[in-house]
Predict the 3D structure of the following.
Amino acid sequence: NAGVTQTPKFRILKIGQSMTLQCTQDMNHNYMYWYRQDPGMGLKLIYYSVGAGITDKGEVPNGYNVSRSTTEDFPLRLELAAPSQTSVYFCASSYWPEAFFGQGTRLTVV
Amino acid sequence: ELKVEQNPLFLSMQEGKNYTIYCNYSTTSDRLYWYRQDPGKSLESLFVLLSNGAVKQEGRLMASLDTKARLSTLHITAAVHDLSATYFCAVGHTGTASKLTFGTGTRLQVTL
């Protein structure tokens, strides 16, 4: 099993550009999440999904969008990148009580 | 709103010494997690604590949970350099979607 796979691992964006962070899990988990981690901080929840077609906002959703068309995939979209979105992004899935994290995407907006 | 506080934020300790990291949270929860993160890496699950009085041990690390006090501790026994990392506690939201709220982390540095 690959677990939770994120792509890309690193990305540099210019202010105003858009991109999609990809997340795929092969464990057939209904629950999936996007977190961001700023330097020296804990993770903060951006969006989450309880199943295909169902998404909801977390603590810091502004500037992001998500979709969940399949159980496996949960992409995160940045429409107009801003320097404040420079962070490390982690995708996760869960099957109670365990949570499984991807390896992260390090995004820099310049 | 669930809030999670960890202390200390930074801990420098000598090899062979013992120390405890504390994790306080503000509202009722049914589970608490401890994770380890090495620089530039993802989170490694250490412990999942599900009930009041739960105690789990793995090597030099022992975690406990007091749900009445809303407090978890991660105790380090006879620290070794390999334990140097950042440790996070995360508390589960009850009811909905298994969301987690994380503490700000404790950066542990074990010196010779």
